[in-house]
Amino acid sequence: MTLSSLWLVVLICTTFGVHKENFRTCDQSGFCKRHRNLQPGISTYVVQPSTLRISKSSLMVDVLNTANNVRFLLQGYGLQHGIFRVKLVEAEPIRERYEIPVGISLVAEPVQEELVYEGEKDGKLVFTLNKNKMIINVNPLRLDFLINDEPVTSLNAQGLLKFEHTRQKQGWFSSLGSSVISLLSQPFRESKKEEAEAADGAAEESKVEEVKTADDEPDMWEETFKGFTDSKPNGPVSVGVDIAFPGFRYVYGIPEHADSFALKTTKNTDPYRLYNLDVFEYDLYNPMALYGHVPFMVAHNEKNTVGVFFQNAAEGWIDIQSNVADKSLFSNLADFVTGKSEVPQTDTHWFFEDGIIDIFVLLGPGPKEIFQQYASLTGNTPLPPLWALAYHQCRWNYNDQEDVRNVDQTMDKFDIPYDVIWLDIEHTDGKKYFTWDGSRFSNSIEMLRNLSSKGRKLVSIVDPHLKRDDNYKVFTDARDKGLLVKNSNGNDFDGWCWPGSSSWPDFLEKHVRDWWADQFLLENYQGSAENLYVWNDMNEPSVFNSPEITFPKDVKHLSGRENREVHNIYAMLVHQATWDGLLKRGNYKERPFVLTRGFFAGTQRSAAVWTGDNMGEWSHLKITVPMMLSLNLAGIHFSGADVGGFFRNPDTELLTRWYQAAIFQPFFRAHAHIDTKRREPYLLPEENMIIARDAIKKRYTYLPLWYLLFHKSEKTGMPPMRPLWTEFPKDSLVFERDDSFILGDAILVRPVVDQGHTTANVYFPAEQMLWYDIDTYKLYHGGHEVTVDAPLSKLPAYQRGGTIVPRKLRARRSASLMYSDPFTLVVCLDKNGKAMGQVYVDDYHSFDYSKGSYALMELSFHNFKLENNVLHKGDGFSTKEWVERVIIAGVNTEPKNVHLIKSDHSRVELGHSYDQNSKVLTIRKPGVNVAEKWIINLH
Q1: At 579, which helix (H) or strand (E)?
Q2: Active site residue 149
Q3: What confidence tens digit (pLDDT) does each residue in 750-759 have?
């Protein structure tokens, strides 16, 4: 392919939207078809209880596939926090199957807890972990997980377990006798015959009427898609099993898909696909794969919340069926008329092209426990530097240093705060990363210094593809040291990306990741500085001239592993190495910032994520909420979507509404395609510019809350941006709702995402709850849906009664200038006149907090008294931050006096004002340090 034809392909893709024909459907994937064609029935996998081996926290037992006499080993573990782990592996594989090493998706080896064996009864092996149980049915193999003796999750309940054992393709294979073939080959079952035999209860006598050899079945040893042939030298090695959630109507998670938050049935569509891909202008509301994936699913009902994490790095698909959602309209009406109430159940079917079955079952029993359990496995989000939570200004591309200077100065001219400006691929010398275009960025150090003087940062893009150019030192160094991914013939893989002919470092190897990390040292990344941070794009990886625009599956890594075994972890290993490089550059003292497009379970430990190449359309604004909720549910807390949409030109109303919506989403960045019109916020018409500016400024006032929530995220695994059922788990009216969300436990947000709408329907959860408009403190009662006014200047957002939210209201041009600014405490009282909250402070940029150098305060309001109690204050830690104002909403009568009692017991009378109409009391200038104990009394 010539460079001009490459650009033609790119232009076509970016002009006319997603080309679905470039990506496989299930019918075009051999292993997907094989698993999906299985019919429910009696499983041929049988436990051999006489082989049971038990230790204090684990079990091992042999499993036999009676259809072909292949043996497997079932391993079970009890883990800390109420988690069961189940692994199924071949007993005697002819090659080692890939298992993800600890330190990639799992942050560490999980801590085991005592697993009590209760014995065998009626063909069942019973194990207890605290109050939870795992029951292994012997014949056929089935695993049931119970909370308080109530089944909540089952494996292989439908008999869809299929583990394609390793085998060799031999010319002499077909000459063997049919009896030997029936032992060695994978069965080809007739579902009707099996179902009939199952009804007779004779599973172990089940026979297969028709047996085919592996050579006879299509797509087993070679597969072709769009002219690309996958050699598949190891043959069929896929694994799959059904996972049922009895009692659950709704399941969530398995990002990334541009779909509703509550996952839909796939009865009439393809399964949800899990395969990291570069998808231009992705479609909405379908199960197509996108840039990153986390194989983690959560089921929730009024009683319990449970989760399943299927640790596998290969391509996966997940079918979802529901006995409620899959019913016809007539059936649902009939149930309503007759009064029938069928117990809901969601059945899922997971299958992966390679690897093993390695499943973690998280038994909650509530949402907060699920988040803690998942974080204990894959890790937490480290606290970002404060500036990273502020506003980021980006486009492909800011042309040169003068362009950067003009944008920076014009943002200041229009009084629009921002903290980071970004440079896309055009800033480099011919798409060679770690370089600068000498004609356009001749003095990058000066540019970085000018930004730093205002407390601002710069992010440059560094993609993993290296231009194959003998004059490009990074490439030649990687090539000469043997660090590059190989093709199926063992030569350095040569594919096409932005620079043209490119090669890719093999990030699966630690020494390669260490080499990559060293490229970010100031002496290696010439022209960089300590206020430069990094954006890893195209790291799925994206390969323009390969099948599905990514690595061919038979590409080989330095270990000899095929890409098909490890594909979904490649992107994460890229950004982990980048994170390590920034850590090393800052002498392990300064907190890095890395943004990634591709991701996997565990990504949260080293990168923020954005949702890729979205479009400047109302539908793409609407999808941001469910996509963000899915990411936050799966541990990817520091995430966002391009404000305004990457492609196309949003109208002024859409862009204005997008700024409003994004201020309450974790990662806040505007970005646009190179062919779009310039749309920095100051270019909007004056009315819209003012609204967008006010929205951005509002984000800055809430930075103390964001910072507190990310502190809690690191400590507890709780997402900052949460589905409503996290805080209101028994309110079934919020289970399917994804037009709104709650920030922490305090701020209910319902963005306006429809063109021309000046009202919004807001559901306020919890009948006993009070909700206060964050701008006017107008009061709303829970348990009702209300149509509220939402003119263009208004974002519907409400603080929950009973919470105290820290804010900083002084206007600054960057977050880095806010470190010592005073706090305003917003107290919204519940029906009992109480409220609680916290304030967290540290130095906002270094890792000193991890050594205890921070202060955490708990605020409480009760009996007309606001108390500040210091929960933690590190030795030698101090802050200049003080309390400038206290706003208390829900005060029914004006107090006569307001007194401050300091830590030395001295008393000071404070000035105050009271609004009778809004019931808001404002206390002026308490003047106390936020990290000291004090009390404010109302009399």
Answers
A1: helix 570-585
A2: no
A3: 999 999 999 9
